[in-house]
Amino acid sequence: xxxxxxxxxxxxxxxxxxxxxxxxxxxxxxxxxxxxxxxxxxxxxxxxxxxxxxxxxxxxxxxxxxxxxxxxxxxxxxxxxxxxxxxxxxxxxxxxxxxxxxxxxxxxxxxxxxxxxxxxxxxxxxxxxxxxxxxxxxxxxxxxxxxxxxxxxxxxxxxxxxxxxxxxxxxxxxxxxxxxxxxxxxxxxxxxxxxxxxxxxxxxxxxxxxxxxxxxxxxxxxxxxxxxxxxxxxxxxxxxxxxxxxxxxxxxxxxxxxxxxxxxxxxxxxxxxxxxxxxxxxxxxxxxxxxxxxxxxxxxxxxxxxxxxxxxxxxxxxxxxxxxxxxxxxxxxxxxx
Length: 337
Known about the structure:
46% of the residues lie in helices and 16% in strands. It is an alpha/beta fold. It has a 6-stranded parallel beta sheet, sandwiched between helices. Strands 7-6-8-9-10-12 form a 6-stranded mixed beta sheet, sandwiched between helices. The relative contact order is 0.14.
């Protein structure tokens, strides 16, 4: 019996060792701490939009420079809140070295983030703010200032008067809410411009945004010339609205400012169907968020709030080197696809 127990113990120890080797291998999972290789979980809002692919590229760039492992995993769509909550809890249970999170909802992720903190797993929030919880840093665009850029440009495009529609993204998203409010602040500097709708939501997909855009343009009489300008606060709402304007043959007739970039939106600017886009630096955001967390874990103090900047692109400046780099971030270089 003693010999059998001893042999069984060796088998169990061997299995455990094999399990550890598997985790620290080329799959990207590594030690959570204790002096081992850092393993950082990066959880975006979604994984399909070009914006998140650029964030992923930035995270990989930072991981290679800092010699750490990054595990990239997020919901497929930006309305799957349960999936994101589950991911935070799962990575906490795994004991990762840290979590970099872009919360889908500013309140619904608080409890999960607190759970990570209690487990001594540091959390950096990026892209969109969290309304509570103890976090290391917040890395994001100054979204209200970025929205004001769009509002002020819209006022210039319309001149002294006009009617404007704001298509919002979705409730609970702190980043887009700040952009929307910033846009309204920028427009209100010209009191003669009238906001005819600011309470409709496009939702998390291009399809839902297209449907909402069609209904909104029809309801506000855009086909009769009763809408002078439109603003959308993210990639999916901007593309959905572009499709609706194209279908209604209103491109070039209705002034249109959107947010973020994809190949189709860039083509929209080139063709004059989109007057301007507000650009963030998603690759820089992903890079900075991971670097900030790693810097903290390695014992150096970091800033509590880091602004990654925003720029306004139009047909006149899109060839400038800085703008061109934001329009086409080096995704393939870092992701290899």
